[in-house]
TrEMBL record:
GO terms for molecular function: oxidoreductase activity, acting on the CH-OH group of donors, NAD or NADP as acceptor; zinc ion binding. Keywords: Metal-binding, Oxidoreductase, Zinc. It comes from Extremus antarcticus. SMART domains: PKS_ER. Residues 13-293 form the Enoyl reductase (ER) domain. Residues 1-21 are annotated as: Disordered. Its cofactor is Zn(2+). The lineage of its organism: Eukaryota, Fungi, Dikarya, Ascomycota, Pezizomycotina. Belongs to the zinc-containing alcohol dehydrogenase family. This is Enoyl reductase (ER) domain-containing protein.
Length: 331
């Protein structure tokens, strides 16, 4: 019976070390020894939950169930936000299993395990081989953050001739800048202050705009597409004037409240609002290959995978001081 250490949230937000035991492996289940986990902004929403945290996992296959076909002991694999889906509905059959009605996702299903752990058991069908060009630590933040921004860009018809705005330079945003730049786009970064300007430019931005104190935003070229990766909803009315006619807004932030946007500009400018979650498996695999080919990697701050290390990392992210993705490494 596999048994491993896990780290959970708790009511007062403190991180608790615990132990999870699983039955013997059945079907296409794979036992993984975790080697790295990213810390995503979404984990902050679950810190006070009685559940194992983390959904940007990378590790090495330790053992395989009787029906595992493609993975073997020693392989490097990753997993993200979605653990399973029905496999039979329209969404599953057309490669959009992230929208399956029976999807099993972080925060809702399998609360006894996550990537803040020394081990995990997942279905082979929902694991991703890690390309040779990516280290375990660098691959971890791609399992949710990277997949989410790549999906928003790649799955909705982006063209290399577009001017793409990336709003928010955090874990997701700093990867989005790199993906959009390598896709050939003209990248404009919008960030609260000037503090992250130098790094954003190095990552591939052509323009950088500080938004917080600006009454009115000014961009060199109207944006054909805007990815919003801030941890709260922006002031949408400030954004409308910098969008090109026919532009698409991709709100990605997990945030409360209604989506309130000036109505007539939406109609008269022919704007599209496109929500999305992580990435379906086919897109996720393409994202990993694209990242390995173009050497797209997170800028990381590493922490030990201990109660203290996780607490430090979460506190740092909470204060807005992470540059730019925390990665936890089991000791
Ligand atoms: N849709 C999905 O499937 C999906 C998947 C993963 C994550 N998410 C969500 O995406 C968001 C970003 O995640 P992340 O991991 O990149 O988080 P993060 O590392 O904390 O980055 C968020 C960025 O938002 C800006 N920001 C911080 N506090 C803010 C505030 N109060 N108001 C406005 N902006 C603020 C900062 O950028 P600047 O300093 O540049 O302004 C910060 O770096 C989170 O809401 C997360 O839950 C969604
Ligand atoms: Zn389904
Ligand atoms: Zn995430």
């Amino acid at each position: 019976m596999p048994s491993f250490t896990v780290f959970k949230g708790s009511k007062d937000g403190s991180i608790k070390k615990s132990q999870t035991s699983k039955p013997e492996l059945t079907g296409d289940q794979v036992l993984i020894k975790v080697t790295a986990s990213g810390l995503c902004g979404t984990d902050m929403h679950y810190r006070s939950g009685d559940m194992v945290l983390g959904h940007e996992g990378v590790g090495v296959v330790e053992a395989t169930g009787p029906n595992v076909k493609y993975m073997k002991k020693g392989d490097r694999v990753g997993w993200g936000y979605e653990h399973d889906s029905c496999g039979h509905c329209h969404q599953c059959l057309c490669g959009a299993e992230t929208y399956c009605n029976d999807r099993q996702m972080y925060g809702e299903a399998d609360l006894d395990q996550g990537s803040f752990a020394h081990g995990a058991v997942w279905r082979e069908a929902f694991l991703f081989p890690i390309p040779d060009g990516l280290s375990d630590a660098a691959a971890a933040p791609l399992q949710c953050g990277g997949a989410t921004v790549f999906n928003a860009l790649f799955s909705y018809g982006i063209k290399p001739t577009e001017t793409v705005g990336i709003m928010g330079v955090g874990g997701l945003g700093h990867l989005a800048i790199q993906f959009a730049a390598k896709m050939g786009c003209d990248v404009v970064v919008l960030s609260g202050s000037d503090r992250k300007k130098d790094e954003a430019m190095k990552l591939g931005a052509r323009e950088f705009i500080a938004t917080k104190d600006a009454k009115e935003l000014k961009v060199p070229r109207p944006l054909d597409r805007l990815l919003v990766t801030t941890s709260a909803q922006p002031e949408w009315e400030k954004i409308i004037p910098i969008l090109a006619p026919g532009a698409t807004i991709h709100p990605i932030s997990i945030a409360g409240g209604n989506f309130e946007i000036p109505y007539m500009p939406l109609v008269l400018k022919g704007l599209t609002v496109q929500g999305s979650v992580v990435a379906a498996r086919d897109v996720h695999r393409q994202m990993l290959d694209f990242a390995a080919l173009h050497k797209i990697e997170p800028i990381m701050e590493k922490f030990p995978m201990t109660e203290k290390g996780i607490t430090e990392a979460m506190d740092k992210l909470d204060k807005g001081e992470m540059r730019y993705r925390g990665v936890l490494i089991p000791e």
